[in-house]
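Input set for joint prediction.
Command: fold jointly, output C-alpha cells.
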Amino acid sequence: MNMIVPLLSLAPGERGVVVDLRGGPNFRSRLYAMGLAPGAVVRVISFHPRGPVIVEAGGTRLALGRGMASRVLVRKL
Amino acid sequence: MAMRVVALAGNPNVGKTTIFNALTGMRQHVGNWPGVTVEKKEGVFEHRGERFLVVDLPGTYSLTAHSVDELVARNFLLNGNPDVVVNVVDATSILRNLYLTMEIFEMGLKNVVIALNKVDLAEKKGIKIDPVKMSRALGVPVVPLSAKEGIGLEELKEKIWEMAKGKIKTSPILPRYDPEVEREIEHISKCLKGTKLAERYPLRWLAIKLLQRDDEVMKLVLRHLGEEKLREIMTHIGEAEERYGRAMDLIIAGQKYEFIDGLTHEFMSYGKTGETLTDQLDRILVHPVYGFLAMAFVFYLVFKFVFAFGMPLQGLLDEAFSSFGSWLAPHIANETLRGLLVEGIVSGVGSVLSFFPLVFLLFLALSFLEDLGYMARVAVLMEGILRKFGLPGKAIIPLILGLGCNVPAVMATRTLDEERDRLVTMFVNPFIPCSARLSVISFLVGVFFGGNALVAVSIYVLAFAVALLSAKLVSHFVSGEESPFVIELPEFLLPSARSLLLHSWERSKEFVKKAGTVILVGSVLIWYLSNYPVPMGSGRSYAERLGHLFAPYLSLMGLDWKAGVSLLFGVIAKENVISTYGVLYGSVDAIRSAMTPLQAYVLAVVTTLYIPCIATIAAIRAESNWKWALAVTSYMIAVASLLGVVIWHLGQLLGL
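C-alpha cells >
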C-alpha cells in the first residue's frame, strides 16, 4: 500500500492519484472541475521552494498555490 | 420567422471565442446578462437560408452555483430554451472537457453538438481521436475542427442546421455511478417525483445537484416544496455522507471522471506525452526569479512598442484636429456657434481622441499577450505579491490595462472569479495613471524638471503603492471568501490576427464611446463655463469664480485658484488639467514662472490621484452600484488631498 501524502510533497516528475480534497465546497468544486478529482492522475511539472506548484492533470497544466497543494491528498505512484 | 437560438458552451481557453467569431463575423452584439455584470455576447449567422442567433455563454469548467459565470451559463441552458447547444471541447484535454459535457447531458439537454476543437494540435501531441466512435459513445454528433485554421466550420453549421430542423436523433449518454450512489439518486428522485419541480427540471439532475448540496437547487426545493421536504432530503444526504466518511460532491465528481475515462477508451488513444515547448517555456516563465526578469522584459517591449508607434500617431491626430478646427472656423458666421464648435467640441473631443492610437496599441499588445496565454503566467507570478494586498494574481490584468484607460480596465475586472475581488480591484483601479494622466505628468515633468524621467517614475511608483495599500485597506471591509489560487496555464498558441483585432477593438472602443458621450458633454460645459458671462482671463468667468471657491482648500497644498479650475475640468478628462492651464496662462513660459517645481510636483501627484474621471465613475457604477462609485470618488479625493498637503509641507521643510 502506497503512502498518502499532500500534493505539495511530490517532487518534479513524480506522479500521484488524487484521493481527497481537504477544503470547503467552493475549493472542492473549483479543483475537480479543473480536473483534480479523486482518481485523477497528477504529475508535478515544476516546483519552487516559495512559488506555486505547476502540475499536469488530464491533459491540462495548472498552477496551484502552496496552500491549496497542501490540501490535495494523493497516493504516490 | 423567429431566429433559432444556438448556445455556445465550453471551458475557458478552448477556442470558444474563435469559433464564435468565425461563425458570426462582425455581426456581434455585446451586452450584459440581466442583473449581473457578466458579459453577454450574441451574434447572427445564416445557413441554408435559416438565421441563427448564437449566444456565447461564459467559459466555465462546470455548472455549479459557486460562481456568477457558471450560474449564468447554467440558467440559460435550463431556462433559455436554446434550439441547439454547441459544446466546444478541446481535443488536447478531453477528460476535463467532457466533465462539463456530462453536466450538460445531466441537465436533460438533448440537442447537443460537440465541436471538437484543436484536433490538429491533439494529433501533434500524439492523441488519436476517432470522431465517429466518439459520436457513438456520447450519443450526439461530433464535428472535428480547427477553428484557428478555419477547418470544419461549414460542417459545424450544417450540423447545427440539421439539428435545429429536427433531422438528427440523439441519445446523450448519462454518467452512471456506483450502485450505492445510484441508490441515493433514486431515493431523492422518489422524494421529488410528482412535484412541481419535477415538471420543470429533470429529476435525475435535481437529485444529483441536491447530493452535491447545490445552493440554488436547495433554494428551489425550499421555495416550491417547503422547509420540511428540504430538511428531510438533506438529513438523508447527511446520513449517506456519514457512511462514506466524505462529502458526496467529491464522490460524485470522482466517479464522473471514472465514467468519462472509461468512455474515452472507446474512441481515443494517448500517444507518448513528451515534454512540450510550453513545458520548457514555463520552467522559465513562472520561475520565481527568472519569471520576473522575463516579465520585466516583456512589459518593457510592450511599452517600447506602444510609444514608438503611438506617440507619432498621437501628434499627427492632434495636429489633424487642430487644423480641422482652423479650417472650420471661417466657415461659421455666428460667433457663439463657432466658439462652441471649434473651441469647445473639436478641440475638446479631439484632444481626447488623439490618445486613441496609444490606447489601441496598448490594448493590442495586451490582448496579444492574453490570447497567447502569457497573461495566465503573469497572474501566477503576481499571486504571491498581490495576495499580500488582498488581491488575487489575476487582478494584475485590470491593473495593467488601467495604464491605457481605466474604463475598459474597470470592465476587465469581470474576469475575476469572486465578487469581493472584483469590488476591491475596481476600487483601486482609478489610482493607476491612464494615458491621459501620462500626458499631464510628462508635461509638468518636461517643463519643471527638464524631462527627468525619474521624477515621472516616482509618481507612477507612488500611484501603484497607493493602489496596493488601498487594496489592503479596502479588502478588510469587503466580505467574501478568498478565491482559491488555481489557474490554468493554457498551451501557448499564436492568436490569429482577426481575433486579436476584434479583441483589442472591443476594449478600445469604450474609449471612443467615452469621447463621443461624456467628453462631448464635458467639452461643451467647459466651453460654457470658461466663456460666460465673460471669457476666461478676465477673472470673472464662471470657471474662474468656481476656481476661487476651491482656493482656500487648495492653498493647504500650495496650489491656487487656477489649479482649482484646472482640476475641476480634469474631472471630465484628466488631460484637461493641462489644456486649462494653457488657457489661463496663455503660454508655457507663463506657466513655468508661475509655479515652483515643488508646486508642479504636488499638482502632478494630485492630478494623478484626486478623482476618477466621470467616464470611470460611470463604469464603476455600471459594474457595481452608485454607492461603490461614490465611495471610490470620496476616498480618492481624501487620499489625494492628504498626500498633496503632506508633500507640500515636507517639501518646504526640506527647502525645495
